[in-house]
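Quick note —
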Amino acid sequence: MKNIFSKVTVLLCMVMLIFSGCSSGIGKDESIAKINNREIPKSEFMLYLYEATQDFKSIGGNDIWDTDFDGQSAEELVKERAFSALQNVILTGQKAAFYGVELTAEDKKKAREEGDKELEVITDDQRKAMGISSEQVYKIMEDTLLYQKVYDKVIKGYQPSDVDFQAYYEKNKDGYADTYTEYTVRSILVKEEATAK
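Predicted structure written out below.
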């Protein structure tokens, strides 16, 4: 656990250094990017980075940080995934009105409860490193819930047909071929001789 916390701290520091090169100086919660005219504070990205780090840790354990992902380090991939998730939530949220989706009072209460759960697992040192307030966490949880509601509305009732699936597969199969590994198996063990025959 200590090793993971060290990796997270190093990763957070690396991100801060990377973004500090983009301007003359870092303020307490300086904007690090702009997505569709929305300024993204460093603290917001840091929470997404923390979540992405936790996801990677849960999937690969302590050894995940030594893994090479097709020439990309785990740290680089975590940063990319965190920013991609942040971007998806923001852009989808900006389309909410188009789809007639908004948060109800009950949704906001649920988002606050999720924020409280998040704040329980983040240590004071981690919060300080992120520079994030409780209110920012609650707002991020609202944004995430809005994203989910828009997503659910868009896919509601959508069922791809076999014809559509086959057409998509035929069009894209060459691109997927590099993604998968083909194995040639010499033996398959089964319990009964009859099944084997």
